[in-house]
Design brief:
Blueprint: H1 9-14, E1 19-20, E2 37-38, E3 54-57, E4 60-62, E5 67-68, E6 74-75, E7 86-89, E8 92-94, E9 99-100, E10 106-107, E11 118-122, E12 125-129, E13 134-135, E14 141-142, E15 153-156, E16 159-161, E17 166-167, E18 173-174, E19 185-188, E20 191-193, E21 198-199, E22 205-206
Antiparallel strand pairs: 1-2, 3-4, 5-6, 7-8, 9-10, 11-12, 13-14, 15-16, 17-18, 19-20, 21-22
The structure holds 2-acetamido-2-deoxy-beta-D-glucopyranose.
2-acetamido-2-deoxy-beta-D-glucopyranose binds near residues 40 and 58.
Protein name: Wnt inhibitory factor 1-like
InterPro entries: Dev_Signal_Modulators, EGF
Keywords: Disulfide bond, EGF-like domain, Signal
Length: about 210
């Protein structure tokens, strides 16, 4: 069984005689040990005490400060590691992905949250909460509620970057560098739809009617 008496390591070190009892070192002795205990110099602990624990009786380890367990194999972290963190050595936590800080108490979003997004823990998982006009795991994608048509891409909230030949808030307006004539309509880049009886690339021709 593990034997812990935090703060009494000094007292133990001072007791090299066969029998130690609390208070034997004087009234200003550390008050960690409530009852006296027997320290057997020939005691054997198998498996041996770890992390500088001292074998005080057969198969009984007296652990150094910060360790516990039958063979003092477990480190203690105070405060405890939060969010599933693992105590590596006293006061040192190894945090699961998404958490950081000395006690794994801080949420960290891998790569951060962009554009004003906020990193919070949702059911133990770190995630970015994005402002209304951004989306994506890091809030890296802008939202264009109007949509970006004809190959345009949304580059900022409500703003489309259009392919050449298209204009407008949603890249919905085709551009004809030469205007369409005679009531023709520019329906895609440099392409006119003509009103009868007109035809030609710019609707400049008039079919002969009989
Ligand atoms: C501790 O164990 C050893 C054998 O491993 C034994 O000889 C000895 O008597 C034991 N000591 C006590 C106090 O039980």
């Amino acid at each position: 069984m593990g034997f812990q008496a935090p703060g009494s390591t000094l007292l133990l070190a001072a007791c090299l005689a066969a029998v130690c009892s609390a208070g034997s070192a004087g009234s200003d002795a550390p008050r960690g040990v409530a009852v006296g205990f027997v320290f057997d110099p020939r005691a054997k602990c198998e498996p041996p005490c770890e992390h500088a624990g001292i074998c005080i009786r057969n198969d009984t380890c007296f652990c150094s400060r910060g360790y516990e367990g039958e063979t003092c194999q477990y480190a203690n972290c105070y405060p405890k590691c939060k969010n599933g963190g693992q105590c590596l050595r006293p006061g040192k936590c190894r945090c699961p992905p998404g958490f950081g800080g000395r006690y794994c108490h801080k949420v960290t979003c891998d790569g951060g949250c962009w554009n004003g997004g906020e990193c919070i823990a949702v059911n133990g998982v770190a995630k970015c909460i994005c402002p209304s006009s951004w989306t994506g795991s890091k809030c890296q994608e802008a939202i264009c509620p109007q949509g970006c048509r004809n190959g345009g891409i949304c580059v900022a909230p409500g703003i489309c970057s259009c392919l050449e030949g298209w204009l407008g808030g949603a890249c919905h307006t085709a551009v004809c560098t030469q205007p369409c004539l005679n009531g023709g309509k520019c329906i895609s880049p440099n392409k006119c739809r003509c009103r009868p009886p007109h035809s030609g690339p710019r609707c400049e021709e008039r079919r002969k009617s009989h």
